[in-house]
Design brief:
six-stranded parallel beta sheet, 603 residues, globular, 22 helices, alpha/beta
Length: 603
Amino acid sequence: MKILLTAINAKYIHSNLAIYSLRSYAKAYRQQIQLAEFTINNYTDDILQAIYKEKPDFIGFSCYIWNIGLVDQLCIELKKLLPECKIWLGGPEVSYDAEKRLEESTAADGIMIGEGEETFLELMDYYIAGLKTLEQIKGIAFTDNARKTEERNKSLDCAAKRVNTTGIRTETDISSIPFPYEKIEDFKNKIIYYEASRGCPYSCSYCLSSIDKKVRLREIELVKKELGLFLQHKVPQVKFVDRTFNCNKKQTLAIWHYIKEQDNGITNFHFEISADILDEEELELLSTMRPGLVQLEIGVQSTNPKTIEAISRKMNLDKLKQAVHRIHQSRNIHEHLDLIAGLPYEDMKTFQNSFNEVYAMKPDQFQLGFLKVLKGSAMFYESKDWGIVSKSIPPYEVLYTKWLSYDEILILKSVEDMVEIYYNSGQFEYAIKYMEHFFDTPFELYLKLGDYYERKKLKGINSSRMKKYEILLDFMSELKEMEDKLSEAINIMAFRNILVHDLYLRENLKSRPPFAEEYEPYKKIYKDFYCDEQRIRACLNPDSSEITIDRLRPYLHLEHYSIHVEQTAETGIPVKNEEFILYDYFHKNVLNSQARNISIKFT
């Protein structure tokens, strides 16, 4: 019998831990189990053809909010092409309405509910070895068509549509799950997902993890051994899927100490944490990590106390801010902070406050998300009481609430777009710093920028990087003309310099930006500098001592500015201090990918 476990990921760089775990747990049937991974960007027909060519007898789909629509389409067509093939679904998107889904489905034969490792193994015991009946397998819902052909033929009413369920399965000992990645070298260009714990001690009503409050830890020596394999193979990134990684201090410190001691200088580890429960020992350890070794995702969700209480979230905002600030000071860890729009008691005013408070924490990534009313979550059952209306189709995103209208949701969508383009890209750091001085709050800046995009019909256009800089220049030029109180304060020539600085921090351009200063007055200085090996060495030492100057030159760019660009951006007032900046693309900052830059004086 040929088994095909199938995942449709959101992006090519993603991998699906679930199907790897199922295969590793069912090791007795390893030779008959194959894996197939696609992305939501693949054409449906291409996925259909690829699966059909495998001629599987059993297909298992891993189902999430981002792929369920595509999975449903594939199931319908595959049933026509492979009528005897058993089609089973699993994952969070199908676990909480399994009976209803099967009653309405014309193609799926069964659903694995909740954790799938033991369930899948027992399904293989049934289909391959005949060791069990379907009724003996806990944690499944199935139709009569899920039975083997000979069993269906014995049934007098096999044509009837019946859904059978077998109750809830107890939690799996996650230390019993074998290491899922047989060939780590196959993940050279992908993110590897890893699980050191299951469950979450918190009860946030919007999150499915709150259903399983019992935290189960994988044995630490097993974790170290497996992380050692990632480090040995120099995997680029390992993303822990633990919902609150640092909920157990002993386990947290053991893992962080291990990856620090075994650091290979390449691998990055991503953790989702609660920052407000970090203590001095943990913060001190984090401050000693190699830049780029660790990145942290920290959910804030809201700073409104009434909202936090309404969603049953436990969070000490003051402690969270202190921890984020401490981590930020060390400049060695990428911090990703989250907000959710559409939560109870969060209106436009309170959300703006939440936005501005999180923005003030200076995250490296600022994720402005929108509430998704997930099936099975407490919010799913409470949403009517809260007056929350969401889409009926995945990803079940909020449309409006008692506190936020759909018009206001659309405004926040526009703000989200601007934050993604101009903040999270990291390409406009000093331009944004300069612009902030001319708005009452950061939220107002992104709001006005979104309005500008709307008026100029720029929304939805995939503009080039250079075009985005030009849009900012036009936006600020218009602001200077229209706002009398700002006309003296906004210095467009200074802003041009700052835009050029941002551009060269990220890219060694082949052609000069159209808004850069004239090249000719400084042409001789540039030429003499690139020929002066001793001067270049003096600027770059000690990092360049073992690199030939011929190899270095293509990675260098010298640019003249009539002001001190970074100080001007910080103060909002042109700082008259002519300088040349040398951009060194050979030595980039691992956290933000910016070129190292050195201010140079020429006499």
